[in-house]
Amino acid sequence: MTDAGPRLAALALVVPDYDAAIAFFVDGLGFRLTADLDQGIKRWVTVAPPGGGAELVLARAEGPRQRAAIGDQAGGRVWLFLHSDDFDRDAARISAAGGCFEDSPRTEPYGRVAVWRDPWGNRWDLIAPR
After folding, report:
1. Which domains are delineated in the chain?
2. Longest Cα pair distance anywhere in the chain, in angstroms?
3. Residue pair 47/56 in contact by the 8 Å Cβ criterion
């Protein structure tokens, strides 16, 4: 019997510009563009990682409060975790796309990991699970 309970489908990522975010995630990291719908004053834009998982809703910041949150939605903590089946390949792709690694990869009980920032300052872990 399977549990038919809720699942996490998407997370909103506040970005300064839809097209720059699409370029980073789709052209740079190989995510799939799953929606780009014009809603008048805003767009509904979602991307999904190539290996599956929750989508990101790319939400363009509106107003000073949201613009101030760009890159700091988690108060400086790592809050996005990207699993990889080939750490070196994905680290190279992140760097080539404009992501910036904060440190060298390290081995932890749960796998190989390194912290990186996207072009807007959000902190991510790239993890190759054990």
Report:
1. 8-70 (3.10.180.10), 76-130 (3.10.180.10)
2. 48
3. yes
Q: How far apart are CA 21 and CA 3, in angstroms?
A: 34
Helix and strand totals (H; E) in the chain: 3, 9
Q: Cα Rg for the chain, rounded, in angstroms?
A: 15
Burial class (CB in 10 A: 0-12, 13-18, 19+), 117: middle
Q: What pTM value is reported for the model?
A: 0.94
State the Cα–Cα distance between residues 106 and 114, nearest whole angstrom: 6
Task: Pull the structure tokens for residue 79.
Answer: 């809050």
Contact 44, 18 (CB under 8 A): no
Q: What is the pLDDT along the chain (130 residues), one digit of tens a residue?
A: 567 899 999 999 999 999 999 999 999 999 999 999 999 999 999 999 999 999 999 999 999 999 999 999 999 999 999 999 999 999 999 999 999 999 999 999 999 999 999 999 999 999 999 9
